[in-house]
TrEMBL record, chain A:
It is a multi-pass membrane protein. Belongs to the binding-protein-dependent transport system permease family. LivHM subfamily. One of its GO terms (molecular function) is branched-chain amino acid transmembrane transporter activity. It is found in: Cell membrane. This is ABC transporter permease. The chain crosses the membrane at residues 6-29, 63-86, 98-118, 145-162, 190-212, 267-285, 306-329, 388-407, 414-434, 458-478, 508-527, 547-567, 579-599. Keywords: Amino-acid transport, Cell membrane, Membrane, Transmembrane, Transmembrane helix, Transport. It comes from Roseibium polysiphoniae. GO terms for biological process: amino acid transport. Its main location: membrane.
UniProtKB/TrEMBL annotation, chain B:
The keyword Membrane does not apply. It comes from Roseibium polysiphoniae. Residues 5-246 form the ABC transporter domain. This is ABC transporter ATP-binding protein. Keywords: ATP-binding, Nucleotide-binding, Transport. It comes from the Bacteria.
Length: 620, 257
């Protein structure tokens, strides 16, 4: 009994930081409709800033003053981010905003590395709260009890601010109808900036307040963000009481998970989320969002046509050159091109569902890694011949996509994105924690192709045939009736439904097809490397694909492939630099703001201007 | 003659408010029937129930004797009901012809086909339909750059693509210039007469209604208060009372405004 109570109290104490970060994220989303992926980074900054302040300010006042000041400073950093990065993209589609905040994550990571160094730092203990209290015989840290006492005050303070103050009323009004609030003469930009300040300050506060328990390190941004997303999604996006309930639920569950089922703590969290969303797709206290006719922001995508004679000839010439590569290039070059082709297929599969389907999937790596693991597991445990195991990679990933898609397709927009992310994390946590089967962090090794494909050149041709073949198949499908039907559901779901199209079914099948193609890329990957590790399923991998599609051009057909070639080519050179994340992050932010058409879109515009490409009728 | 569409006791409540209350009517083959009423009378709610976008609280809708209440929009469409929207819903990233081809692909049940190029499928049929509404010259323009009136005509071509028995048109001339309104409605009237299609439409413009509708139904506060020919409705005292606040209803003017 005593142990039980002690664990419950630990869980409640852990909920404090999680709630602070989640409520900030929820608040920002409610008003601005921006999902701030960089919220974990603000949490990390709060920890580092708080630590620095505590080292200079002594005593009770110094400790608690540092926490408050860390919150305020991080709030101001949030304002800088809002004004410089997000203001220019408020009217852009959600993908642009999400990618921009991802750029911010990279920038903050390197800035923190520059300022505070790579070593983990221990937090100081709170003055006067250093010992433990015995409750029913079990030791409970005093600081935990302090956190449990403080959190309800913060919740109450937030509630009072939102329910009782004039600014709070504006915030609530903006959550329901931003345009109306603007039309009533409220300066929206300052309202947004204010909310961003508050949300960021809460994240900073969360980072500083957990210092005595967790300290500060460079991984805390991505470590907390997936838990925060779970909390926000489970609680209902935009709902602060929901965030509180979910934070407590998840934290308590985690503590008990560690005690009783230590192998599956992460899995448990995602399973809870999946169950909640099956019953209540918009979270415990979230309200249903009517998916209206979003339309497209910016220039409408143009009508498409299969490549003409010139385009096809260029592709044939390119393929001929690639086919000749082994005769004049080094082994290293062949391996590099193999990697590029695999990544291109992965990016093309994401672009299919994202651009043609208008469905922004945030967990696409789960199908890439999923396919790879299907092959790897078959080879490891049942000595399946490589050819069969390879074939089962796209099939397995396709089935996985059918399963995940069944849940996700019911939602749209940001909700769809969050749900795909959450499901991919669920699979990742399964692979990561089920060490006895998947090898966990050590991965699965010795997954080599059959003899006839074992040479570098042989596998090069194999990859070239299937990778480029896969890309061409996807491209053809976009021009087929099914591809047109998919675009129809994206352009106007209402019209599609009113002319005999089963919108959800079409989206579901397209999602499965994209998953199968990503699985094919995963199958090619695992046999080219001979091994597979859980990081191929991670958020970071999903983001890699999103970023290349984005860099290449969302509203184009070939953006993903072009972006992937560009990225894989510069990555080798870029990652040799010490602060490559900073450069990449700034590049991403610059593209979002300055050239949202991406590489292909910008080139096409340039071509039209100098008369190389035939110009189309522009908007009247 | 049997009715194409039979609506019986159709009702819809939102919370405690009865948006549509016990509405019953028939649409006969070849008939052009208008449903009018002041703002908030329940016209759009009625329409959304007929087309499956809204589930009725009670009542039935039968199409040629078969019950279609509760079916999703796509299944009602498959049974031969076409629809145009008050705010046009076209596929912005496709050409004019492709918009019609898309509906034809759906009609011929080729939605899940992945082998042929979509832009070559049923192109001649699509061009013929576009010719009917006078849009053939613009077939290869991008839909995103069309003028509003042309979008409306395109929507009409799409609605005709599966040879419907019945067309439901929600405010077909909303947002158009007066001259364009008369032209579009004349075009619609000619097409449905030639093809024997029945039409039920809602409309704000009384010129359009009185010039083209064979029968007019008046809806007020969710209830049908009158039904009849243009002359009968115009003379109906109750209609004058609730619909026009007791004022005089002038004869329809069909000349250009």
């Amino acid at each position: 009994m005593g142990l039980f109570v002690a664990q419950l109290l630990t869980g409640l104490a852990n909920a404090a930081a999680l709630f602070l970060v989640a409520s900030g994220l929820s608040l920002i989303f409610g008003v601005t409709r921006i999902v701030n992926f960089a919220h974990g980074s603000l949490y990390m900054l709060g920890a580092y800033v708080g630590l620095t302040l505590m080292n200079h300010l002594p005593g009770h006042f110094g400790f608690w003053g540092s926490i408050v000041m860390a919150g305020l400073i991080v709030g101001l950093i949030g304002v800088v981010i809002e004004v410089c990065v997000l203001r220019p993209v408020y009217r852009a589609p959600e993908l642009f905003q999400l990618v921009a905040t991802f750029g911010v994550i990279l920038v903050i990571q390197d800035l923190a590395l520059m300022i505070w160094g790579a070593e983990d730092q221990l937090g100081p203990r709170a003055p006067g709260l250093r010992s433990v209290v015995r409750i029913l015989g079990e030791p409970v840290p005093q600081y935990d009890l302090a956190l449990i006492a403080i959190t309800p005050f913060i919740l109450f303070g937030l509630w009072w601010f939102i329910a009782k103050t004039r600014t709070g009323i504006l915030v609530r009004a903006a959550t329901q109808d931003r345009e109306m609030v603007g039309a009533l003469g409220v300066n929206q930009s300052w309202l947004f900036t204010g909310v961003f300040f508050l949300g960021s300050a809460l994240a900073g506060l969360g980072g500083a307040i957990q210092l005595p328990k967790g300290g500060a390190d460079l991984l805390m941004d991505l470590n907390i963000i997936s838990a925060v997303f779970v909390v926000v999604v489970v609680g209902g996006m935009g709902s602060i009481p929901g965030a509180f309930i979910a934070a407590v639920l998840i934290s308590v569950l985690n503590v008990f998970g560690v005690a009783y089922v230590p192998q599956s703590t992460l899995v448990l969290m995602y399973v809870v989320m999946a169950v909640v969303l099956m019953v209540k797709p918009y979270g415990l206290l979230g309200r249903e969002e009517k998916a209206g006719e979003h339309g497209q922001v910016g220039e409408v995508e143009r009508p498409i046509r299969p490549a003409g004679l010139v385009g096809r000839s260029l592709v044939v010439v390119l393929l001929a050159v690639l086919a000749l590569v082994p005769f004049f290039a080094s082994t290293f070059m062949q391996v590099l091109i193999t990697d590029i082709v695999i990544f291109c297929l992965f990016a093309a599969s994401l672009q299919f569902i994202l651009s043609s389907g208008g469905l922004v999937s945030f967990g696409h790596a789960v199908f890439f890694g999923g396919g790879a693991y299907v092959s790897a597991l078959l080879v490891t445990y049942s000595e399946t011949p490589m050819e069969v195991a390879f074939l089962l990679a796209p099939l397995g990933a396709g089935l996985l996509a059918l399963g995940i898609g069944w849940f996700c397709i019911r939602l749209s927009g940001v909700y769809f994105a969050m749900l795909t992310l959450a499901f991919s994390q669920l699979v990742w946590s399964l692979v990561f924690q089920w060490g006895s089967v998947t090898g966990g962090d050590d991965g699965l090794v010795n997954i080599w192709p059959s003899d006839w494909l074992s040479g570098t050149t042989a596998y090069y041709y194999f990859t070239l045939a299937l990778g480029v073949g896969g890309i061409l198949v996807l491209r053809h499908i976009i021009h087929s009736p099914f591809g047109y039907t998919l675009r129809a559901t994206r352009d106007s779901a209402r019209q599609a439904e009113a002319t005999g199209i089963d919108v959800k079914k079409v989206q579901w099948l397209a999602f499965a097809l994209a998953g199968a193609m990503a699985g094919l890329a995963g199958g090619l990957f695992v046999f080219s490397k001979g091994s597979i590790f859980p990081n191929e399923l991670e958020i970071a991998k999903s983001f890699d694909a999103l970023i290349v599609v984005f860099l290449g051009g969302v509203k184009t057909l070939s953006g993903g492939v072009v972006g992937a070639v560009f990225m894989e080519s510069v990555k080798d050179w870029l990652t040799r630099l010490e602060y490559w994340r900073l450069i990449l992050g700034l590049l991403i932010i610059a593209v979002v703001i300055i050239a949202p058409e991406g590489i292909v879109g910008s080139l096409r515009k340039f071509g039209e201007r100098i008369g190389l490409v035939k110009e189309q009728e522009s908007m009247q | 003659m049997n009715a194409i569409l039979e609506v019986r006791d159709l009702s819809k409540s939102f919370g405690g408010i009865k948006a549509v209350n016990g509405v019953s009517f028939d649409v006969a083959p070849g008939e052009l029937k208008a449903l009018i009423g002041p703002n908030g009378a329940g016209k759009s709610t009625c329409f959304n129930m007929l087309m499956g976008q809204l589930e009725p609280t009670s009542g039935t809708v039968r199409l040629q004797g078969e019950k279609i209440t509760g079916l999703p929009p796509r299944k009602i469409w498959r049974r031969g009901v076409g629809r145009t929207f008050q705010i046009t819903g076209t596929y912005q990233s496709m050409t004019v012809a492709e918009n019609v081809q898309m509906a034809l692909i759906s009609h011929h049940r080729r939605l899940f086909s992945v082998l042929p190029y979509a832009h070559t499928l049923y192109r001649d049929e699509a061009l013929a339909l576009l010719d009917v509404v006078g849009m053939a010259e613009q077939a290869d323009r991008a839909c995103a750059i069309l003028a509003y009136g042309d979008l409306k005509r395109l929507e009409l071509a799409i609605a005709l693509s599966h040879n419907p028995k019945l067309l439901l048109m929600d405010e077909p001339t909303a947002g158009m210039a007066p001259k364009e309104r008369i032209n579009l409605m004349q075009l619609t009237a000619d097409i449905v007469r030639d093809r024997g299609i029945s039409v039920l439409f809602t409309e704000h413009d009384m010129d359009v209604v009185f010039a083209h509708a064979h029968h007019i139904m008046v809806l007020n506060r969710g209830e049908l208060i009158a039904e009849g020919t243009a002359a009968e409705v115009r003379e109906n005292a109750r209609v004058q009372e609730v619909y026009l606040g007791g004022g005089t209803l002038y004869a329809a003017e069909t000349e250009d405004a």
